[in-house]
Amino acid sequence: MNRSTNTSEVQQATLYYLGPQGTFTQEAAVQGQTIISEAIGIECELKAVERAKTIVDCVEQGHGWGVLAWENNVEGTVVPNMDALVDARKVAGFCKLSLDIVFDAFVRPDHAELTEIRAHAHGLAQCSGFIHKHQLRPVAASSNAAACRDLAINQVGLGPSICGPLYGLDTLQEAVQDFQAAHTDFLLLAQRDQVKELVQKCASRIRSENRLPAFESVIAFIPLQTGAGVLANLLDRVRDAGLNMTSFMSRPIKGHDGTYSFIMTVDAAPWEAELKRLIVDVIDRGVWVKTLAVFPRTPRANPPVDQWMLPVGGMTDTGHGTDDNFSGRARKELLW
Amino acid sequence: MNRSTNTSEVQQATLYYLGPQGTFTQEAAVQGQTIISEAIGIECELKAVERAKTIVDCVEQGHGWGVLAWENNVEGTVVPNMDALVDARKVAGFCKLSLDIVFDAFVRPDHAELTEIRAHAHGLAQCSGFIHKHQLRPVAASSNAAACRDLAINQVGLGPSICGPLYGLDTLQEAVQDFQAAHTDFLLLAQRDQVKELVQKCASRIRSENRLPAFESVIAFIPLQTGAGVLANLLDRVRDAGLNMTSFMSRPIKGHDGTYSFIMTVDAAPWEAELKRLIVDVIDRGVWVKTLAVFPRTPRANPPVDQWMLPVGGMTDTGHGTDDNFSGRARKELLW
């Protein structure tokens, strides 16, 4: 009896995302809905909220799960969302999903001559080539979704493909963004005491698709001592544990300029021996530690860095013993 | 004769900033104008351009100097601007300036009943408490400056204080932002071959104000080998050189997911012995290096990290040998 009550409660689960309807975050939420259905066996309904902070609060209060933008490969980490997870009492991420950022251009079926283009300021900035080519006057909106919803007959709207069916618009042209390889990673959030079980369920789903089962974790460290070498000592322990790190950043502790936390993404789960040993070791040395997320590791490129990938300028080893112009180039590239 | 021609050319120097007029970047540009006048003895005129990339291009082509948003203590590093400096051929930063982000609320002198509030979407988000308190309907604009310029009689506009005199508006209330300690750091940009001289002139100005003369540098590193420990080995050399690092982040090389550059801020100038030795050492080991900026070190807080500054939750050393609940807390905070 108890059990069936629990099940029926869980079946009414809600997945909170940053609204309004028709945003990229809704596209991510739809992806999250599928993962939760396939890996966990629960159908959840989507609910749009107005602020990212509200998503964390709803999960914290046990109202459901959440989907939160984490990192864009052009704009970088979504820092306020990362801060929100550092500050959350009992919420962590259990799955990472990746969304290609593709803008389509829409018009109303009854459109007149097109003279304006409407989108969020970021959307306008990311499609500047298209706007310039068609000589349209940019009009800023509070979101791409709102732009498409409130489109006038002389306007082109920019937004994710779901805006077409959602607002009854015709697609004028697909994929009109300037940069073709932009993507945003999102985290699915749950209460901390559910995370380990959820991660393992998500990992089984990946395993059954014949991919490598393994985990990644995002961990926050705050050394209570400051000074030269604190970070090097911390990373020595990561290296000596043989752990591969794929992302790292320092971040001022909010409201305390001059103090730092370090946020690291590492190829292991916190319950695996190497990472567990590392964490105990640094805690013993007076470092504050909190795990922000654990998720199944997704396949990724790991190309060698070739000369053609390097930015222009800069310097690397060219056998400078015999390089007559070493000091001239050093003056320019290194500002000696 | 030649000399006076040069001087008169230089006196027509331009400082490029991201427009339109009335943005926070213009406030920063005005600060930059003062520094350039006092430290370098040159009066430059301000010129607003539409895109950050254009600022770098104008400096690159020798048309003048630039001011570029670098980091906000709430939003983090302005990643596209950092990427633009990594990719620039012959532009680097020579001075860092810091601007408090303060939003004032403006109305037209002939205003009617106030029912709406108008600003850039970020401005609306950063003043949500004020908007909520006064029950105003938010209206998004392409920039805070445009919002204030085009204000209707039933609207409150949000923007930096310069918007008042600039657009003939009355100040309804000062400092209406939610977070009172937000600030944005900007870099002044010049051609690389001028940077060392300009930094030293800016440092003399600081020295004459009786502050500690010293430098900071922002340096990009790309290890050509990847794998566990590459970063730890790099940071060991920074520690062993006794250099204090104040900011660090990894960043995918643009368009090459899975490859990384590392951007470090360190308390030294590249022409000082310790940093110079470090750079030669890592170049010899096959690391690509480029200096992005050098600037006089400004005074900053360096408080110890106390318990009350730590985020909620997490774990640190509590003599867990005798802590009965260590494993329970570890399960929750570390996701063991």
Automatic annotation (TrEMBL), chains A, B:
Pathway: Amino-acid biosynthesis; L-phenylalanine biosynthesis; phenylpyruvate from prephenate: step 1/1. GO terms for cellular component: cytoplasm. It is an enzyme of class 4 (lyase). GO terms for molecular function: prephenate dehydratase activity. Residues 14-191 form the Prephenate dehydratase domain. Coiled coil: none annotated. Its EC number is 4.2.1.51. SUPFAM superfamilies: ACT-like, Periplasmic binding protein-like II. It catalyses: prephenate + H(+) = 3-phenylpyruvate + CO2 + H2O. Keywords: Amino-acid biosynthesis, Aromatic amino acid biosynthesis, Lyase, Phenylalanine biosynthesis. Gene3D superfamilies: 3.30.70.260, Periplasmic binding protein-like II. It holds the Pfam family PDT. This is prephenate dehydratase. It comes from Bombiscardovia coagulans. The lineage of its organism: Bacteria, Bacillati, Actinomycetota, Actinomycetes, Bifidobacteriales.
